[in-house]
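User: Study the chain.
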Amino acid sequence: MQAPWIIENSNLNLVPSPLLSVKVSSSGPSSLLTQIAGYWKLDEVSGTRFDSTANALDMNEQNGPVASGQGLISLAAVFDGGIAGGFLGFDDSASLFNPYGDFTINLWFNNPAAVPENILFSMVDETQSLSLMIDCGLEFPSGPTSAQLFFYTDNQTSYVTAPVGTISAGWHMATFIASYAGSTISIYLDGILAGHSAFGGMNSYTPGLTSLGAEYDSNFFQVGSQDETGVWNRALTPTEISTLYNGGAGITYPFS
């Protein structure tokens, strides 16, 4: 089990914290079921990856096959950085969530390679030359010790980066939150706030393809594995983020 991270100083040096695992209560439905838009366990060996919620927003293979491998919980989707061209996605993003209100994207990633830019989650506009509405990922601008998470919205009009230095091997949880109420966009790494910035909202777009593991019609892909990916139509609370992290063990839908 991996330790959570704590912020040691203003330069965002991350060190392991001795926090205990969060005990998940089984009494009654979890608050994490409130306004959940889609959740993909990514346990399928190949082909379609099914949405665990009643919204049935299933992810299909795009441009090629997507392999599977050992996940944080059961199996995970394994992306090869575009060698076979495969990533996951679906076209009806308008059914997923409304990017003109608060939203949260939470996922686990295991990236063994320090490639310049790993795309974890992306949404493009359907009509305006596939402009990027949302782009979340991990990049290494200056080599293996320069890792930073990024969260771009509105074709990079509002964005935040979270420098984390060196990413240790194994699974890590990334949480991306856009809050209209708080006028902020935020990134959490392993349950701990790692960066935030001002958020000016989104221009008018027509949601197009939502994808995991790549930007649609782009040269940027993920190299590594992704597991337990969820989207909510609200900003999750720090307590809920800690529940999802669960001391590094994670928790899967329906969170009980």
